[in-house]
Write a structure and sequence with these properties.
alpha/beta; Arc Repressor Mutant, subunit A; 4 domains; 3-stranded antiparallel β-sheet; about 45% helix; COMT_dimerisation; COMT-like; transferase; methyltransferase; protein dimerization activity
């Protein structure tokens, strides 16, 4: 059936009305003001939120048409301005002054930035609801800008390469996105159109490598002497990403793979576990099992060791959790484990390398071993009878994050997010059969993919 713009406008109005009314109908649901600069105010975690935000964005596209495209093309300036705000310690400077608003001349004293230029940079952020301009060239923190707060003093931040150690990871996440990834995406067209790189899925032939002027993978670059702060920032950034997505709600939830119900002395291997956010959650939910957390030597001896010493030193002391250096491209040393777990790892690698990783686990597994992947499962945006999205929303309900993350994987590692069908094919190529997929609860976008050994 052919629909008109009026049909779509009416439907979007109705979706906005019903979803907003549903949010307001819950008296216990906290909906902080944008002006609220107190810490810990994350997304409004309720089902109608996704419909409301998706309808709002589609409404802007419907009414603005081509101007919407141009605005999106200019969006890189928002990301680059965020990086300036972080490196100029803007949020911390405003906080230390009392948080009610500070003139740009005072804010600029925390760095070498020119006040007139900084005012323009902060204004474009305020136009996108990040900071509030309370008076002419006077800026205050708000609910969106406080994400950038390291919680440290400006004095401690100046000249410190390891800015993000012992922080909640939010500022590290934004810094990672606005430096490493922003530079990389600027070379995306060269990477996908140049004959030398267009058909390659090697992690050394990426937009990131072109931007950095290197011929090695991002992980190898960060492992080089002198780049320790980049690796440390990434580790902390992943803690922030987990917290922003609901505090790892995708790891232990009703209906998912039941870690808490695992038998006593079950052996679980957290492959590529990073700083240990996932294993920390599982160790809390399932104290009866043994966990081996694996990652690269520089990760295990750095952020992983620090995280467990701070968050759960008794698990290490008791032997419940063991930290082990391991390259997951090499044979898996833990044979016949009950569960092999990987969260947000396979999306870092193109199919040939992902198959190699999963094949190492297959070779080590017993017939009864289970493989659990915690990953995003993306859906095509083409019309489908299976779509549960109300007219006129896309099947994704307007959520662009999975698709942005997919391009992030492409630019950084020549890797990808995958559909369910792609996970089936990937698993079978490595000797694993996909048994079930369970979506995590809102606001998480991750799912449990449970495989058995073929």
């Amino acid at each position: 059936m052919t629909t008109t713009g009026r049909d779509e406008l009416i439907a979007l109005r109705d979706l906005l009305t019903t979803s907003i009314d549903a949010l307001l109908a819950d008296p216990s649901l906290e909906i902080p003001s944008l002006k609220d600069a107190s810490p810990g105010k994350g997304p409004v975690a309720a089902g109608p939120t996704l419909v409301a935000t998706g309808a709002a964005d589609q409404l802007v596209a419907l009414l603005n048409g081509p101007a919407y495209t141009v605005t999106k093309a200019l969006g890189g300036h928002v990301a680059s301005s965020l990086r300036v705000a972080i490196e100029a310690h803007v949020v911390e400077t405003i906080r230390e002054a009392g948080g009610e608003g500070l003139h740009v001349n005072e804010i600029a004293k925390s760095s070498a930035v020119d006040p007139a230029k900084l005012a323009r940079i902060l204004r474009v952020l305020a136009a996108h609801h990040i900071f509030t301009e309370t008076a002419y060239e006077t800026f205050a923190n708000n609910r969106c800008s406080t994400l950038l707060d390291t919680g440290k003093s400006v004095k401690d931040l100046k000249g410190n390469r390891f800015l993000y150690t012992d922080t909640n990871g939010f500022a590290a996440l934004v810094a990672h996105c606005t430096e490493d990834l922003l530079k990389a995406t600027g070379y995306l067209s060269e990477a996908v159109l140049s004959p030398e790189t267009a058909n390659s899925y090697e992690p050394e032939k990426t937009a990131f490598a072109l931007a950095a002027g290197v011929d090695i993978a991002v992980w190898d670059l960060w492992a080089q002497p002198g780049n320790e702060h980049y690796l440390a920032r990434f580790g902390v950034a992943m803690l922030g990403a987990n917290a922003l997505g609901g505090g790892l709600l995708d790891v232990v939830f009703q209906g998912g793979f039941d870690f808490a119900d695992l038998k006593k002395d079950t052996l679980l291997v957290d492959v590529g576990g990073g700083a240990g956010a996932v294993s920390l959650k599982i160790a809390e939910a399932a104290p009866q099992i043994k966990i081996v957390l694996q990652d690269r030597p520089e990760v295990i001896s750095g952020e992983t060791k620090k995280t467990w010493e701070k968050e759960n030193p008794s698990a290490i002391a008791s032997g419940q959790v063991e930290l082990v250096a391991h390259d997951f491209f090499t044979p898996q040393p833990i044979k016949e484990a009950d569960v092999y777990l990987m969260r947000a790892i396979i999306h870092d690698w193109a199919d040939p390398l992902a198959i190699k990783i999963l094949s190492q686990l297959h070779d080590a597994a017993s017939a009864s071993s289970t493989l659990v992947l915690i990953e995003q499962v993306i859906s095509p945006l083409s019309p489908s009878p299976d779509s549960k999205a109300p007219f006129p929303l896309l099947p994704s309900l307007g959520n662009t994050f999975p698709f942005l993350l997919d391009i992030q994987m492409l630019t950084g590692m020549n890797a990808q997010e995958r559909t369910r069908e792609q996970f089936v094919t990937l698993g079978e190529a490595a000797g694993w059969k996909l048994e079930r997929v369970v979506s995590g609860p809102p606001p998480t976008l991750f799912s449990h993919l449970v495989f058995s050994k073929i």
